[in-house]
Amino acid sequence: MPLFDIFLGGARLLTSDSIADALLEYARVLTDCGRTQTVTFPVMLDGQAGTAWARIGAHADLVAVRTEPQIPLTLDGEEVVASELFRLAANVAPVPPAPGWRPT
Questions:
Q1: Residue 88 domain-assigned (yes or no)
Q2: What percent of the chain has pLDDT over 90?
Q3: Beta carbons within 8 Å of 59's beta carbon, 6+ residues apart
Q4: CA distances, 54 to each of 25, 47, 72 (Å)
Q5: Which end of the chain, N or C, is more open, meaning fewer C-beta atoms within 10 Å of its C-beta?
């Protein structure tokens, strides 16, 4: 399973591909709306499972780098967290205007 190193605020955190995808999508929609949000997600740090809290979105640079782990790794709750981040992203994304709508 590919993993991602997440670089955020000078920290390097290892997380799953599903969480990295969800973090990047949520950060994108928050940035598009000029907002930030604090999120919680499972990580590996120095070989130990842990939990990270991070501010993502506008003015919070987030970089994800794909890595190939030497051993298989699954993070507890990763699918639940990824689903929740995607749900939050969908609720933040601006609603497109109705067809035929024109600003006055």
A1: yes
A2: 38
A3: 36
A4: 15, 19, 25
A5: C
Its domain, for residue 87, covers 3-92
Please provide the DSSP assignment of 23-51 as one string: HHHHHHHHHHTT-EEEEEEEEEETTEEEE
The two three-digit tokens of residue 43, written as one number: 């990580």
Q: Cα(74)–Cα(102) distance, rounded to whole angstroms? A: 49
List, for the chain, all residue ranges whose pLDDT scores fall below the cut of 50. Answer: 103-104
Is pTM beyond 0.70? Reply is: yes
Where are any strands of DSSP class E within the chain?
A: 3-8, 11-16, 36-45, 48-57, 62-67
